[in-house]
Amino acid sequence: MTCARTLAANALGCVLVATGLLALTAIGVAVTGTASQARAWLSFDFGGVPREPEQVVTIAVHNAKFAAATLAGAAAVPHLGSLRLATDVILGSLLVLNACVIGFALGAYGSRIGHALAPHVPLEFGALSLAGGAYLTATHQSLTGRQLAATGAGCVSMLVAAAVIETYLSPTS
Fold first, then answer.
1. What φ, ψ does residue 149 adopt, rounded to 5°?
2. Distance between CA 133 and CA 3 in Å, rounded?
3. DSSP class per residue in 1-62
4. pLDDT average per 10 residues of sequence, the chain (173 residues)
5. Residue 42's Cα: distance from chain center in Å?
6. pTM: predicted TM-score of the whole model, two decimal places
């Protein structure tokens, strides 16, 4: 399998795991009858985010930090040595935590938050899964600087698009 196909397959694996965790967490909140407690804990107001260019930058930069750290891990894999396991655990934990938090919110608020998340979260999951796919690929074969740069450009493009959608197109209430 070519490096690009391996990376794509690994990215697909990341997005499937994240989506599965999101769904299981949402279902868990719903079937345990804890949605009202979860809503009280989260206290979302659904006022939306400011529809300003600065907000796009804030959201994109926030999400890009996760992608950049993951891609840095992909670049560093051949040199991690004994830190490789810690890196695997940290990156895996970030995937699990972020997917479960979104699932928790979805279980708490149902379609109300689903409508708010649906326009932009698939792009965010795609971008972060692409970075995760690069990391997983790098654990088995070295990625060139060009491959990492292309992957990073794809991640940034998706994250900026997601931030624009979240800022200007997501429903506010």
1. -65, -40
2. 11
3. --HHHHHHHHHHHHHHHHHHHHHHHHHHHHHTT-HHHHHHHH---------SHHHHHHHHHH
4. 92 97 96 95 87 96 96 94 94 95 96 91 95 96 94 98 93 65
5. 19
6. 0.91
